[in-house]
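Question (not urgent): is this output format expected?
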Amino acid sequence: MNIIHHHLILQSKVSAIYQQDKFDVLKMFLLNLVDEIEMECLIEPQLKFSQHKAWTGLIGIVTSHISFHYWTIESYLQLDIYSCKAFPVDRTIKFVDNFWKLDNPKLLFIEREPEKEFVIKNL
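Got this back:
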């Protein structure tokens, strides 16, 4: 495998609402996202609901990690996918949008190849 360094950063208001009782739904979101981007789970999903009424989710993939923070009161999502293997960015965004119902998302894609300048793309 040719090692690359791709980082998708997404932030958005969302229409979907996942309150404290949605642990299993959010766990499946992470597992299904790993499948969607054709990666392999290394560390099972870790999820916590904080006293700030916000979810934090993290899953280790063989090529790095996926994490999100979701504030239920503000209906606001921040999601990061970092991988040393290429993944289908457009398909990934569509999958995330189908689950979260994004509202005017901000998207940034960074190629961070060692010893080269970063390539930063607003999507």
